[in-house]
Every structure is written in C-alpha cells, then in structure tokens.
Specification:
CATH topology of the largest domain: Rossmann fold
C-alpha cells in the first residue's frame, strides 16, 4: 500500500470515528465535529480520486447533521449563527467581545458540563407541605432554600445562572456594599440572597405568587424581622390595580402577561407602580434594580419614572420574554431617562433568532 493510500485511509478512519463519536454526546461534541471536518478536509485536498472526495464530503455532511441536533446553542452552527446575527444588526447591545466569548468558549457557555459539579453540591435536607403544596429544603453554596414542588433541578439552575454565570451583573452594573436593591420577580430569593452576600444594605423582594411568598418567608425569616429584607406581596406594573395572574408548573414562570402551555390556573393579584411602592416604603435610596417578571418588565418600568429620575439606579432587566422586548424595553427607559448607557452580555435562542437575555442600564 502506498504512502498516499495509507494517509487517505487514516484520514478517512479518523473522520468517521470523530463524526460518529459526536452522536454519543450531541450537546457537547464540538471537538468531535471539528476533528471530523479537519480530517474530511485533509482527505479531500490530498486525494485525487473522486471516490475519496465523495467520502470526505459525506463525512463533513454527517458531522454537520449531528451538529444540527444540538439544541442548546453549543453546536458549530449555533455559534456561527451568533456572528451572523451580530453582523445583521440583531444584537446591537452586545459587544463583539461578548459575542466572541460566547461563541468561542469551551466548554460551551450553555453546556451542562460545568454545571454538573456545581449541582452535586446541592443537597436535600428536609421536605414539608405548606398551603397544600410540597416544599423541599436544599443546602446550597450560598445558604439553605425552600422551593415549591421540591424542584431541585430548577433551584440548581437558577443558582448557577445567578452565582456562577452572574447573569444579572456586568461591567459597572454590579451590587455594591450598602446598596438598596429591588429584586422584582424574587421567586424563592436566590438573587435576594446573592445581593446580601454582596453586602447590600437592604433588599426589597417583590413576589406576587402565594407559594413563592411562603418560601421567601421561610428562607428569610431573620432578615425580614430585622428589616434587611422587605417582602412585598404583589406585582409591579404601571398603575395600581388587580390583574389576572397565570400560574405555571415551573414556579419561576408565573406571569401577568405570558400564557404558556404549562399554565395551571389563574387568579387576580394586586399590582402597583414602583414609584408608589418606593414612596410607601419611604426609601431614601434605590441603587440597583433587578427585574425578571415574565413579560411585565416594560409596564413595570413605565411605572418607575420618579425612581429613575430621582435615584438613577443601575438596572439589570430581562429582555427575552416577549418578541419585541429588546427594542421596547430600551425605548421605555430612554423615554424616562435618556442618560442611561445600555449594553447586553449574553445572547439566548428565542423566537426565530438570538435575543439579548438581560440588558444592563448604567447611569452616566
């Protein structure tokens, strides 16, 4: 066998092994796919036989097909799409540096590889029924948390996003010692606890869901008693009223706006503007606002005119719940306070394209 034949055979074997190896882990197989494409390219360019070139093409197609099976944003196709959508102007608030970080990082930013080790540190220590619903108590790296439905997977992922990925902090938009923080959409208090570990002076935790409120009361009893955590049992909107509140199987996705397929029931819950809430609480400062309220963000911001004008808080606002969030939410903020600098950090697959997951608003 000639040297050329042996080289072609080795390249073909390597390509096939790497391409089929990618099938074993389609959510984290980029090294397999890259190796397959390199092998296929080498086979194509070093061979003069049409059969070998056809095989090289089939290898590349097979590798790309496996890549297409990846649905969590880690495939080569998904990473390339990030660049193309930035070029097309669909991600104007995310800098090229953050696009490169997200598209080129390894392990993939969305891969569960790093999360697995973190997840193993979360231990269930108790369970009980509150208001007819099961709750689990879990020991985590930042403290103990009760969560409805004993939903360990949800708690683990929320903790990972907030404390490891720092999804609500970027550049100057960070919590500083002594800050008064508003946590709109507090859920069971992961961000509230995170703010306290950042040495926030006070956190206003806003949550309308009764079961989540019960969890917050269990999770922050001493802090609520001391006044370091202020629990507001309502939602935020642009006016004071009652709205239909839809409950979801996922305790972090209850909403006044979105109506997903997993909605269980709906009832009427109170909402009020942030301006009125801050006045009621007699807050003398508002330094940081985190808002993740399942599509109600733009209406809540519209009810915060006086807060923005008086305090100029740093803000981290979720912008992926509604199709036009990435344009509507910056427009609302600019209409209220034109001086904010706006940027994003992470892109997320949503609707028919990538969208900015959280937008950060820094007062100049």
């Amino acid at each position: 066998m000639t040297v050329a034949r042996r080289r072609q055979g080795a390249l073909l074997a390597a390509g096939l092994i790497c391409t089929t190896g990618g099938a074993a882990a389609p959510s984290s197989h980029d090294p397999f796919l890259l190796a397959a494409l390199v092998a296929a390219g080498g086979l194509f360019w070093t061979s003069r036989e049409w059969k070998a070139r056809v095989l090289a093409g089939l290898m590349a197609m097979a590798g790309l097909a496996w890549s297409a099976l990846d649905t969590n944003g880690c495939s080569i196709g998904s990473r390339a799409r990030l660049f193309s959508e930035k070029v097309a102007g669909h991600l104007p608030y995310i800098d090229w540096g953050d696009i490169r970080r997200q598209a080129l990082c390894w392990p993939c930013h969305a891969s569960p590889a790093g999360h697995k080790e973190f997840d193993s540190s979360i231990k269930k220590v108790a369970e009980k029924t509150v208001n007819g619903e099961s709750m689990g108590l879990y020991r985590t790296p930042i403290g103990d948390f009760w969560i409805p439905g004993s939903d360990r997977a949800l708690l683990s992922w929320v903790l990972w996003e907030i404390t490891v990925q720092h999804c609500y902090e970027s550049r100057q938009t960070v919590i500083r010692p002594g800050d008064t923080v508003i946590d709109a959409g507090a859920h069971v208090g992961v961000f509230t606890r995170f703010a306290l570990t950042r040495k926030a002076g006070r956190v206003v935790a806003i949550e309308p869901d009764r079961t989540n409120i019960a969890a917050l009361e269990l999770n922050f009893g001493p802090e609520i008693a001391s006044g370091r955590v202020i629990l507001v049992k309502a939602g935020v909107w642009d006016r004071k009223t009652f709205l239909t509140f839809s409950h979801d199987q996922n305790s972090a996705r209850h909403s006044f706006v979105t109506k997903g397929e997993n909605r269980l029931l709906a009832d009427q819950m109170p909402v009020l503007p942030l301006d009125e809430l801050v006045e009621q609480l007699r807050l003398d400062r508002v330094d940081f606002i985190k808002m993740d309220i399942e599509g109600a963000e733009r209406r809540a911001l519209a009810g915060a005119r006086q807060v923005l004008d008086r305090f100029h808080p740093r803000m981290a606002i979720s912008t992926y719940h509604l199709r036009d969030d990435t344009t509507a939410i910056p427009a609302v903020v600019r209409a209220l306070e034109p001086g904010y600098q706006i940027h994003g950090k992470d892109a997320e697959t949503g609707w028919d394209r990538y969208v900015t997951k959280v937008m950060f608003f820094d007062p100049r």
